[in-house]
Design a protein that fits this description.
The chain is of the alpha/beta class. Helices cover 50% and strands 12% of the residues. It has one domain: Uracil-DNA glycosylase-like domain (Uracil-DNA Glycosylase, subunit E). The two termini are 19 Å apart. Bound molecules: iron/sulfur cluster (SF4).
Length: 199
């Protein structure tokens, strides 16, 4: 990685770590910036906000939902989670695991945009309603839009269910949501394979 890109990452990390642009700075334990390869990163996964486990550890998607995400990627698509960059739309935990509000999303959006600018992924995956609606500026709910490839500034974007949603489902609803997610992760794998074959 070039010295300039390294310095840009260092600067961005220090800006996020010391950020007080929204009220979430008052209640966070740790800022959760994101993790994954910062060089030749094909795919970025964007969730909603850190939960309790993430807030305590400072790492993204380490709780039950994160473990399910790893399983979905690896068992469903043969995609190693550590080959992807994983982050959230906001970098600090909303108390009580509330959805981040528009003010918080707006305050944090420069950081997400800077991450995407530095990573230059070929593919983005948004998990759940919050990050999908925020990036695509759509009112379409995740149930209707998931699995359909979209574009975010010329980058292919695939909305998928958030793993927390899958954990909340039971019975037939759970089976159906898992089957749809299974289909989506296969679609993601096919897209990543297509990109690899073009290189
Ligand atoms: S959520 Fe984002 S904007 Fe708000 S304090 Fe944390 S880093 Fe700053």
């Amino acid at each position: 990685m070039s010295i300039e890109i390294n310095s840009a990452w260092d600067l961005l990390k220090s800006q996020i770590e010391s950020c007080r642009k929204c009220d979430l700075c008052e209640t966070r334990t740790n800022v959760v910036i994101g993790e994954g390869p910062t060089e030749n990163c094909k795919c970025v996964i964007i969730g909603e906000a850190p939960g309790e486990d993430e807030d305590l550890s400072g790492h993204p998607f380490v709780g039950r939902a994160g473990q399910l995400l790893t399983k979905i990627l690896e068992n469903g698509g043969g995609i190693k989670r550590d080959s992807l960059y994983v982050t959230n739309a906001v970098k600090c935990r909303p108390p009580g695991n509330k959805d981040p509000n528009t003010g918080q999303l707006t305050a944090c959006s420069d950081f997400l945009e800077a991450q995407l600018l530095l990573l230059q992924p070929s593919v983005i995956v948004t998990l759940g309603n919050i990050s999908t609606k925020w990036l695509l500026k759509t009112s379409a709910g995740i149930t209707s839009i998931r699995g359909q490839w979209q574009k975010w500034r010329k980058i292919d974007l695939l909305p998928m269910f958030h793993p927390s949603y899958l954990l909340r489902q039971t019975g037939d609803a759970e089976r159906k949501a898992k089957q749809l997610t299974w289909n989506d992760v296969k679609s993601l794998k096919a897209k990543l394979d297509e990109l690899n074959n073009k290189e």
